[in-house]
């Protein structure tokens, strides 16, 4: 079975989306949502409600209509240590309020469940694979990763991130910081240095559960519009800042070495 890094390494041999034919949209956007067991059912439920509310909100619809073509293509999946296959909601074009509500309704109807471990690398590889195989031409290809901890399973995250960025994709992050993180300098700092990448990439932190819906909506509007928020955490090379992009793997290993 191919590793996530092997999947990403193969991207260079595929036909670029801009040459592949299909419908033209402003953005192809994959929502990759963490459902690991470090979050309880209440938190995951509020996370789900945040995405549903954001997708139905007027600001989201207006952002879609404000693009050059006035339409985007969006897909969704949940992940933890692996991609939850029955969570995948395949590509849907959003052009009208009815389109957005229909997609949100599909998401709202999904059962809520949690899984073990955290593999951001697997989430990025899945998102990249879905974008490459999509039937759409788009000006920007975005993988939107939400998570509440560092990578601790599968391939290391940075090589997978770098391959997706080399293939022309943008990776943005939503760092869920409702509880103390395993990342010593803060999960938003870890995401900034180890997860996000591409032109204008950004990470938004969520520190209070009541702020989740607003943060999700803000993130989606920024991604569709192509804007970036003012930098609260500067993205820098991990070697220069001391950010250890393997901290999650090391902590998990230490558990079993005791």
TrEMBL record:
Protein's UniProt keywords contain Signal: yes
InterPro entries: DUF1194, vWFA_dom_sf
Signal peptide limits: 1-20
Pfam families with a match to the protein in the record: DUF1194 (PF06707)
Protein keywords: Signal
Protein name according to UniProt: DUF1194 domain-containing protein
Species: Rhizobium aouanii
Lineage: Bacteria, Pseudomonadati, Pseudomonadota, Alphaproteobacteria, Hyphomicrobiales
